[in-house]
């Protein structure tokens, strides 16, 4: 870690390195909560943990800044845990292993945790600083942002006094975010009867891997492959032409990550053995040709394996395969009001078929609440027609842009002064916590910005070193220029 800790600005990188030594999966934040509580206490700052586990650390204004508005600096403590299939790593016990690659900091075969660890580390650096001018600060470290935003949802009104919120969770250093999408989980489940494997059957393992993956909001418009949809295309072809039967499927992982891998165990009749492999190779060739630009490392393997004990009954299987084929994945609608902004999308994130049960998990996002549920209901209808029970859960609101925000004017002016060009004022298709926090703090003026992070929610996640320097200089200047009360 010494190489990381010696990067500039050292105060940020040393805190990021310390944070990354603490396992911090969503819904498993006990250790990182204790870490942040100890950090605040060791600084002698007022530190509290609310009813759901959010950590709040308060620091008084520096001399001469007492007449400025109190600010809330906010980032989330949890990170997405993803790793490459061939990476041996235990997220529950190991710290993230980082290295420098030219201008980038990366992790060895896992997610890096720059989302949102860089924001957390920057706030930590401000809290422990002795020479940075700033108004009174309420540092808010939320939990469970990545799998439900329950930390932001559980934050009660009245705990915070700040009138301006700086959310440090944006991933392009030339952007200032003033809005984001909301989301809802769409989950389809059903049971099926297992059948004995017919005589004269051959077992095959089908593997889809090597996809880029990525953030199901920020990367949904990049034409990336979805392992679940690609796998289903293969199963559809095998079923239609050769009567393929499914024994098991394990595809995708987290609802907010574009699926990178899927694995299936299937059978076919021995009489189709050679022609099945030949025909499927043509399908694989077609799929790879379609994705040659966006997914050059895509691998699709069909290999003989031992026969499974049971398979799914054909009636349910046909409905399941056709429903997944029909389920919308990717961009559903672009915004008519903001150029190049995805308004509504869906990620077919997780598919599990095993031991008589099917589970399909989707995350539907939209910056327009009615459009979010329009797509969610389209998915619901698709799965219900195939006999699934469908539930909506974890719904959270978007953040409506305020182009007349006073703090936006401050940030735009400072960015232009520092860099000689204007920042891009945008809304994003990711889920930021600002919209949720605004439900209990409706008068709070909110803004989001951060350093450049690429490949979030995938093992290709990386953060630019020079961008962190740019972000830090900008943040320090913002703190000096918070408006008067």
Automatic annotation (TrEMBL):
Primary enzyme class: hydrolase
The EC number(s) this enzyme carries: 3.4.13.18
Keyword Membrane: no
Needed cofactors: Zn(2+); Co(2+)
GO terms (BP aspect): proteolysis
GO CC terms of this entry: cytosol
InterPro entries according to UniProt: Peptidase_M20 (IPR002933), Peptidase_M20_dimer (IPR011650), Peptidase_M20C (IPR001160)
Single GO MF descriptor: metal ion binding
Reactions that this protein is recorded to catalyse: Hydrolysis of dipeptides, preferentially hydrophobic dipeptides including prolyl amino acids
Highest rank taxon of the organism: Bacteria
Entry keywords, A to Z: Cobalt, Hydrolase, Metal-binding, Metalloprotease, Protease, Zinc
Domain Peptidase M20 dimerisation: 207-292
Family the entry assigns: Belongs to the peptidase M20C family.
Protein name: Cytosol non-specific dipeptidase
Source species of the chain: Flavobacterium akiainvivens
Phylogenetic placement of the source organism: Bacteria, Pseudomonadati, Bacteroidota, Flavobacteriia, Flavobacteriales
